[in-house]
Design a protein that fits this description.
Elements: H1 10-32, H2 36-57, H3 61-79, H4 85-90, H5 119-136, H6 148-172
Helix pairs in contact: 2-5, 3-5, 3-6
Length: about 190
C-alpha cells in the first residue's frame, strides 16, 4: 500500500502516445524495407503530386527550390563512398586504416563499395522532405514572391557543376556507385 502510484500527468499520457506512434511508424518502415521498387514508385508519385501542386498554384517556388537543393545534397551523399579516398590520400592515412579505403591500383585487394548515405536512408529522407514540402505549399507564409526562372537557371547550373565534379571524382578514384554494368560471376557449388 505504500508503493507510489504511477504518475497520470498529461505529459506522461502524451509521451506514452508519442512513443506508441513512433513504434508504429518504425514498424511500417521496417516492413517496407524489402520493397525497394514500390518505395521509390510511391516517392515518385508523391514528387509528381508536389510538382502538380506547384504548377497549379503558381507559387511556392522557394519551397520547390529548397527541396531541389536538399534532394541534390542527398543524391551526392548517396553517390559518395563512406570513406573518401581523396581525404585518406591527402592526410596520409592510407596505411592507418587499410580496411576502409577503396583500391586505387589493380593489384590491391577488392573492397566493396560502401555508401556514405545508404539507399534506405536516402529514400526515407527524400520522401520525408517531399512530404514536408508538400505540406508547406498549403500555407501562404511560405509563398515568397520570387522570379522563378532565375531559380531554375541557378539550380541547373549548380546541378551541372556539382555532378561534373562528382563524376570527375569517380573517374579519378575509380569507383562506380551502381551495380549495373559490373561483371557478375556465377557461384559454383562446392567452392
Amino acid at each position: 500500500m505504500d508503493a507510489p502510484e504511477p504518475e497520470n500527468t498529461p505529459f506522461a499520457a502524451v509521451s506514452a502516445q508519442t512513443s506508441k506512434l513512433g513504434r508504429l511508424y518504425q514498424s511500417y518502415l521496417d516492413k517496407s524495407t524489402p520493397y525497394t521498387t514500390y518505395r521509390w514508385i510511391s516517392t515518385a508519385v508523391l514528387l509528381a503530386l508536389f510538382f502538380v501542386r506547384i504548377i497549379v498554384a503558381q507559387g511556392w517556388y522557394i519551397v520547390c527550390y529548397s527541396l531541389g537543393i536538399y534532394l541534390l545534397n542527398l543524391f551526392l551523399a548517396f553517390l559518395q563512398p563512406k570513406i573518401d579516398p581523396s581525404l585518406t590520400q591527402d592526410e596520409g592515412l592510407e596505411d592507418g586504416d587499410a580496411g576502409s579505403s577503396l583500391p586505387t591500383k589493380k593489384d590491391e585487394e577488392f573492397r566493396p563499395f560502401i555508401r556514405r548515405l545508404p539507399e534506405f536512408k536516402f529514400w526515407h529522407s527524400g520522401t520525408r522532405a517531399i512530404a514536408i514540402s508538400f505540406f508547406c505549399t498549403w500555407f501562404s507564409i511560405f509563398n515568397v514572391p520570387v522570379f522563378w526562372p532565375v531559380l531554375v537557371v541557378y539550380f541547373l547550373i549548380l546541378f551541372s557543376l556539382t555532378m561534373r565534379r562528382q563524376i570527375q571524382h569517380m573517374i579519378k578514384y575509380r569507383y562506380v556507385p551502381f551495380s549495373f554494368g559490373k561483371a557478375k560471376y556465377n557461384q559454383r557449388s562446392g567452392h
